[in-house]
Amino acid sequence: MEMPVRQGSGFNLPRYLSMQPLFQEMNAIELERLAQGCSLHRHARGDMVFRVGEPCNAFHVAVTGQVKLFVISPAGAEKVIEIVGPGQSFAEALMFTGRPYIVNAQALADSLVLSIGKSAVTAEIEHDPRFAMRMLAGISRRLHGLISDVESYALHSGLQRVIGYLLRDHAAEDCVSGEIVTVSLPVSKATIASRLSLTPEYFSRVLHELESAGLVRIDKREVHILDVQRLSCYQPG
């Protein structure tokens, strides 16, 4: 169940804001002013942060935990749009449209979520137009990521998408030959599969194929990549 975090709970909101890229150029007075338009909420695993159709009067930052952004198809199938981790923001662009939420947001783990009200944001934009430029930069990065996702779904096979996911933080040229790299799956395999527009069965099948090929070793939620270079070049026989 969602629980609001009250003032005086020990969480230094202005200090936290100052450490976020979006707000780090603001001075102490501006941070204090912005903090007045913020609210903190604790969400237990499985709690909904917001639902499709609800008014969008704020954007949000995952302070701790993880939040899943997803939609439900008319047939009832779930499609994960994004998995948001600590320090990442979401719903910025939608807040400015004046329209309701078009996706659902659900806590994947016990999470602390900071909500930053639209009125506080617009007041800071009026006070300093550079704040708007920083917000636009963040929105542009998310748009670029979504375009990359669409390109991947359209042009890459399911196998390539899984390999790309495993190697997203490990470029072959940056790894020492023979070095074992461990990737910890942050959420369930079913959630990752949905994020990659794959079925859970196909995602598991690809992992086992890579394991049979001697490229990875699977230990529950940890995937040990035995050879990054070989994995990046893998083509099934």
Task: Give a quick summary of the entry.
By secondary structure, the chain is an alpha+beta fold. It contains nine helices and twelve strands.
Write out key terms for the chains shown:
Jelly Rolls; four-stranded antiparallel sheet
Walkthrough of the structure:
It is built from nine helices and twelve strands. By secondary structure, it is an alpha+beta fold. The chain folds into two domains: 3-155, Sandwich (Jelly Rolls); 158-232, Winged helix-like DNA-binding domain superfamily/Winged helix DNA-binding domain (Arc Repressor Mutant, subunit A), CATH 1.10.10.10. The strands form three sheets. It has a five-stranded antiparallel sheet. Helix 4 crosses helix 5 and helix 7 crosses helix 8. The protein is elongated and about 60 Å long. The mean pLDDT is 86.
What does the secondary structure layout of this molecule look like, with pairings?
Elements: E1 3-5, H1 13-18, H2 28-35, E2 38-43, E3 48-50, E4 58-64, E5 67-72, E6 78-84, E7 89-90, H3 92-97, E8 104-107, E9 111-117, H4 118-127, H5 129-155, H6 158-166, E10 181-184, H7 189-195, H8 200-212, E11 216-219, E12 222-225, H9 228-232
Antiparallel strand pairs: 1-2, 2-9, 3-8, 4-7, 4-9, 5-6, 5-8, 10-12, 11-12
Helix pairs in contact: 4-5, 7-8
Radius of gyration: 20 Å
Give a count of the beta strands, DSSP E runs of length 2 or more. Answer: 12
Provide the structure class.
Answer: alpha+beta
How much of the sequence lies in strands comes to: 15-25%
How many distinct helices?
9
CATH architecture tag of the largest domain: Sandwich
